[in-house]
Amino acid sequence: xxxxxxxxxxxxxxDLPRLTDTFADWIAQAGSCGYxxxxxVPHRIYENLRGRPIGELVQLWERDGEIVGLAVNGRFGNAFxxxxxxxxxxxxxxxxxxxxxxxTTAGQxxxxxxxxxVFDCDTTRIDLLERLGFARFRTWDxxxxxxxxxxxxxxxxxxxxxxxxARLVDADQLAAVRNHSFGTSWTxxxxxxxxxxxxxxxxxxxxxxxxPDGRIAAFAVCWLDRRNRIGHFEPVGTHRDFQRRGLAGAVxxxxxxxxxxxxxxxxxxxxxxENVAARRLYAxxxxxxxxxxxxxxxxxxxxxxxxxx
Length: 309
What we know:
The protein has helices at residues 16-30, 40-48, 54-57, 92-106, 123-131, 171-182, 188-196, 247-261, 276-284; strands spanning 7-10, 58-63, 66-75, 79-84, 113-119, 135-147, 162-165, 206-210, 216-225, 230-238, 266-272, 288-299. By secondary structure, the chain is of the alpha+beta class. It has two domains: 7-141 and 293-302, Gcn5-related N-acetyltransferase (GNAT) (Aminopeptidase, 3-Layer(aba) Sandwich), CATH 3.40.630.30; 149-264, Gcn5-related N-acetyltransferase (GNAT) (Aminopeptidase, 3-Layer(aba) Sandwich), CATH 3.40.630.30. An eight-stranded mixed β-sheet has the order 5-12-6-11-10-9-8-7, with helices on both faces. A four-stranded antiparallel β-sheet has the order 1-2-3-4, sandwiched between helices. The protein starts with 6 loop residues before the first strand and ends in a 10-residue tail after the last strand. It holds the Pfam family Acetyltransf_1. Keywords: Acyltransferase, Transferase.
C-alpha cells in the first residue's frame, strides 16, 4: 500500500480509549510481534514523557477516520516508537511514519543519534529500518511471559509489611520509590499531574508494598488487555532501602492472582537484557523469555541537521 490518504495529527487525552481499543484489535489480528501490550501506550505517553508537550511529541496517523498508526517521539530524549496497523505493515505508509518520527525526535534532542527498538521476530520492521539507514547496536529488552492458568503461589511478605492499592495521596511516596528504584527525578506533584490524573491510570492497578514505617517499599503497575486476556507489568520497582527482601516478587504474586481472577490468561513483563537481577526475579516467578528487542540507531546528521546549541 502507498501512504496516500494518510493524515497525521497530534494526540489528545481524549484519544486514549479509542487508541487502546485499536491496539487490542491489532494484536488480536496479527499477534504480539510488532506490538507492545496495550498498557504500554499510556505508560510511554504519560510516564515516559513526564509532562512534556504530548500534543507535539505523540502523533496519530489516520486514514478514512480510523487510527492506522501511532508515534511516540522523544522518549528518553532521543528514542521513538512507531506502531502501524497490520494492513499497512511493510509499505509506504509505515516508511512515512518512521521517517516522520525520526525527524521529529531529531528535532527534540542534542544527542548524536536517534534510537528505536524492534522485536527480534519483526523482520518487516527490521527491513524498513535498515532501508532507512538504521543499524542494530544492542540487544535492548528481554520480553517475558507467564501462563496465569498455572498456580502463582502466596505473596509471602515479611512481618509488618502489607500489600495494598495505591491512592492519589501517595503521589510523593510513589515518586520517591521510583527515584530510588531507577535513579529518576520525579516529584510527587509531577507524578500526580503527569500520570495519576491522566487517562488510563487507575490507582487500583498500582499495587504497592507498605513498610512498617509507612513508606512505600515496592510497587508494580498492572495493565489489562481484556480483549486478548493478557496482563502486563510496567514498571516494577523496589526502594533501595528495602531491596533483597522478596518484596518485588511478593507484590507481583499478589497482582498475578488478582489478574487471573479478572480473567487474564497470560501476563508479560519486560526488562533490560543486561539486568541479571530482573531476569532472575522473573524466572523465579515462572516467566519465560518469549523474545527480545533490538536497539537500532541512526546518526542525527543523516536524519536532519542537529539543533543549534
